[in-house]
Amino acid sequence: MPIAQPPSHPARRRAESGSAYILALLTLLVVSVLGLSLVYITQTEMEIGSNERTLEKTFYAADSGLAIAAARVLVTSDHRSQLIDVKEPGSALNVRQVIEIAPAVPIYDAPCNLCEINNSGTYQDKAYRKINNALTVRASRVVGTRTTASKTVASMLELQPWKSPVEAYLAIGDPSQLAKIRK
């Protein structure tokens, strides 16, 4: 007796034809969307890192301005404001750091409580004082004519025993100089 073969179902085969193709296209679409998302995330992270580096450079420029202001007060007793414009080395574009140092203003002036020299001897005129100076520096990173980052840093510089020149107090009466400190 001959073996019976199952009947073929041509309708079922037609419904299954092309399903692997559609599944492959859907998989390709999902993988492409994931790949594009990773590219976008990587690009965003790179921009964040670049901005962070720019802000760090600007902060350190402002911090250097504080050191310059403190050194000027300590070494030459110069309390005036100063503008420093530094071109960034190795930059193809016109990238520079502009550091605005506000005048060092004595905001607290009192007798030197640590100085026995004020009480007797050569220094009987009590000219040496305890003086707190306010230092403010604003650094800006400029590309061409556009400011891309800006940081303001302020600090106090306490000096004792110290003799401040009369010029140190001039900024207190000048509103334009006081505006530089308040920035």
General description of the model:
There is one protein chain. With 183 residues, the chain is an alpha+beta fold. The chain has one domain (19-182). It is 40% helix and 28% strand. A hairpin with a 7-residue loop joins strand 1 (82-87) and strand 2. The radius of gyration is 35 Å and the shape is rod-shaped. The chain starts with 9 loop residues before the first helix and ends with a helix. 15% of the residues are buried.
**Residue-averaged pLDDT:** 84
Q: Helix-strand pattern, N to C?
A: HHEEEEEH
Question: Biggest β-sheet: count, sense, barrel?
Answer: 5 strands, antiparallel
In whole angstroms, the N-to-C terminal distance is: 105 Å
Count of discrete alpha- or pi-helical segments spanning 4 or more residues? 3
Tally of strands: 5
**Approximate shape:** rod-shaped
**Multimer state:** single chain
Structural class: alpha+beta
Beta-strand residue percentage? 25-35%
Radius of gyration: 35 Å
Helix percentage range: 25-40%
Number of domains: 1
Low-confidence stretches: none
